[in-house]
Amino acid sequence: MTLRAFLLAGSILCLPAMAAAEERPVVVELFTSQGCSSCPPANAFLNEMTKGRSDILPLAFHVTYWDRLGWKDPFSLEGATSRQDRYGRRFGDGSYTPEMVVDGGVGLVGSRRDEVNAAIDHAKRGQQTVAAVRVSKEDGTVRIHVGSGRGSGRVLLIGFDHEHTTQIGRGENGGRTLTEANVVRSIRSVAEWSGEATSITERFPLGDDVAVVIEAPDGTIVGAARLTGGLT
């Protein structure tokens, strides 16, 4: 879906049945690789999003399909590749890097700041939130509470690291040192939500921090939260 089409679809997406339960961060997913020479500007853009912006939940998903081209990204994840493939089939534009997907609704070239910022602003105005999400940590486990609401979706548990700096030895970025923020280390589905308030306890995932996302059947993001407090 193009940005223009996404913006035009706003009046269709803002349905009363999906009215916002409360404010939540806009989820921005960057599909990237340390082996891609076009990715560092998008990585830098995402890094900036992580600095003091509670209105955005930025996540860097490192894909695997660059690993065979001279440099194996140590943070590449099959789950990232699969997730982007699903977006690519839905948007009709395949998989490429760097791609930013905003709230599961539109995919854009991640280094095109003006277009990405416009998509974020649009997502805020027409935000879909089916239920409040709360996340906490207790004795090495993650406690997730999803409130009652209207709609349905998968509850995804995402583990991510705050920051990594890597010296790149080979490939298109050979000789460079890259600093990357909010690097996703794990993603898994932990529940199906269908309107009833529910509490979930899961082992703490790989990663320094945790995000929880509710993904609607059509792939759009309709709920999100990040672990608050209790990080050790």
Question: Could you explain the architecture of this structure?
Answer:
The protein has 232 residues and is an alpha+beta fold. The chain has helices at residues 3-8, 10-13, 40-49, 78-91, 113-125, and strands at residues 26-32, 56-62, 99-102, 106-109, 133-138, 141-146, 153-167, 177-193, 198-203, 209-215, 221-226. It has a four-stranded mixed β-sheet with strand order 2-1-3-4, sandwiched between helices. The chain has a four-stranded antiparallel β-sheet with strand order 8-7-10-11, covered by helices on one side.
Outline the fold blueprint.
Blueprint: H1 3-8, H2 10-13, E1 26-32, H3 40-49, E2 56-62, H4 78-91, E3 99-102, E4 106-109, H5 113-125, E5 133-138, E6 141-146, E7 153-167, E8 177-193, E9 198-203, E10 209-215, E11 221-226
Which properties best describe this structure?
5 helices, alpha+beta, four-stranded mixed beta sheet, four-stranded antiparallel beta sheet
Uncertain residue ranges: 1-21
Let me know the average pLDDT: 90
How many distinct beta strands? 11
Q: What is the share of helical residues?
A: 10-25%
Largest sheet: 4 strands, mixed
> What class do helices, strands and sheet pairing give?
alpha+beta
The amount of beta strand, in percent, is: 35-45%
Biggest sheet strand order reads: 2-1-3-4
Query: How do the helices and strands follow one another from N- to C-terminus?
Result: HHEHEHEEHEEEEEEE
Radius of gyration: 17 Å
Quote the distance from N terminus to C terminus: 40 Å
Number of helices: 5
Choose one word for the global shape: globular
